[in-house]
Design goal:
- The complex is a heterodimer of chains A (about 90) and B (about 475).
- Chain A is mainly alpha-helical.
- Chain A has a domain of about 40 residues.
- Helices cover about 40% and strands about 5% of the residues of chain A.
- Chain A has a two-stranded antiparallel ribbon.
- Chain A starts with a helix and ends in a 5-residue tail after the last strand.
- The mean pLDDT of chain A is about 85.
- Chain B has about 475 residues and is α/β, with parallel strands linked by helices.
- Among the domains of chain B are: about 240 residues, Amidase signature (AS) enzymes, CATH 3.90.1300; about 60 residues, no CATH class.
- Chain B is about 40% helix and about 15% strand.
- Chain B has 15 helices and eleven strands.
- In chain B, strands 1-3-2-4-6-5-10-11-9-7-8 form an eleven-stranded mixed sheet, with helices on both faces.
- The chains are: A mainly alpha (about 90), B alpha/beta (about 475).
Amino acid sequence: MEITKKDVALAGKLANMQVSEQEAAIYEEQLRALFKWVKELSAVNTDGVQLTNVNITAHIRADQPQTDLARAALVRSAFNDAQDDCAKVKKVL
Amino acid sequence: MMTIEQIIHAITSGEKTAEQITRESLAAIAAKNAEINAFVEVFEQDALAQAKAVDEKKARGEKLGALAGVPVAIKDNILYKGHKATCCSKMLENYTASYTSTVVEKLLAADAVIIGRTNMDEFAMGSSNQTSLYGPVKNPVDTTCVPGGSSGGSAAAVAAGMVPLALGTDTGGSVRQPAGFCGVVGIKPGYGRISRYGIIAFASSADQVGVLAANVKDAAIALEVLAGKDEHDSTSLDAPVPCYAQQMTADLKGMKIGLPVGFLDGLNEAIKDKVSAAAKRLEQLGAELVEVDVPYAKYSAPCYYIITSAEASSNLGRYDGIRYGYAAQQADGLKNYYENSRAPFGLEVKKRIIIGTYALTSERYEECFLKALKVRELIRDDFKKAFEKVDVLLTPTSPTTAFKLGAQEKDPLALYLADLYTCQGNIGGLAGISVPFGKDEKGLPIGVQFYGPILKEEKILNAAYQLEKNK
């Protein structure tokens, strides 16, 4: 599981982040050490291990449709401008 | 600073008003914060208004809440409507909460006074509080040392006597490790015990709200206020909340305390001595010590860094300049707009996103992410079996005491090891508490930790309370 500058650059690209040459050099060294450590996991026999929910005892709301007016009002209140009951957002591009 | 119990007594007896208590807290912050840097904002006017409302309530003869007039600090990743919540990141420098988190709602309903927001590692990713937009926090015990992290501001605020109570969040030890470094009590309840509605997400399968206080009883009083099911958080557990503070009076006769095999191997001598001394003291108090084997627990740290980084890479995807966070002013196309808008992330946050994204790539998914999830199952099974034999486990809180500011910046793996004993609790979903138990040769606090299963916080509180009383 050798990590290279190329891997760092690819992960940065997938995560929509610019990674400078200088940052890639720092990350490459640090991540190499980290993933060497992570490699220890490969020694663990996980054959037949089934994944369970993180929190199996948590409550689940009944599957019934609800209208959450408070949430809609919250979303609208997050924007300064509105028109025809629609939030107006700034032009991105 | 007075304890919560003392404040409640002073207010109910008429010895002091909530306004006086709040002004004392504000004065302590004004006197010490320039050096410690625990608070990034103080809500002076709001806090005084809340305190006056408590005094008026008392004057009307109405029943006061469980935290009436108690000044409480909240970590900068906990939402409080109309107030900034920045995660100490340039990314959220101008973000103002549009709603209030359940934990803050509960504090206000209990008549607490929200005094300000505390410093933290950027997006709660760190163990030293050195990655904050607002600069590092200093440990009040020795200001050349870190306070731990990521809730370093909350721990330092309690340790410096600025507030009797502070909220933190704990994804890999971010409440318990700074509590240990600063010599205060820090409890992270089991997964689901406290609602996370209104907490800015880092890693959803591990994040929990925790409490930092000057002593175990204060932590118990606060936990009782905060715990319970919340319709806004489906991971919160639907179970009754015990009267924690009242249940701590039981002696330890019959309590089985597990000592995990191998946990003290290679450990700093001072810490090893204190954990051994704590075990001996608990035995003298009537507890039975039992060695337990948790063979997979040693894999907790690598599991933790893969799983939480993968979840962070997903959770932090929302900071794209459109949905949340800094919005770039210039861009050449949509992809470039996202990239420019995500540029304010600090080095550590970017690194964790890169780790998580890399672990989730199709080439690495099975050997990294899926493997870590499967090993987590084995670790959980280990703890489940251990709690069939014992009531609680005793471990160190951290492998070292507080280290010097800047000392481990060039060796992030050493920094990651600071979470060695605490991240097991998040990987296992366990309840954990750090309680101060002595100091090392430099006079720096040493914390010992108790673990208990989900919904058994009363057991770790009781063990910690008895140890605190019988140091």
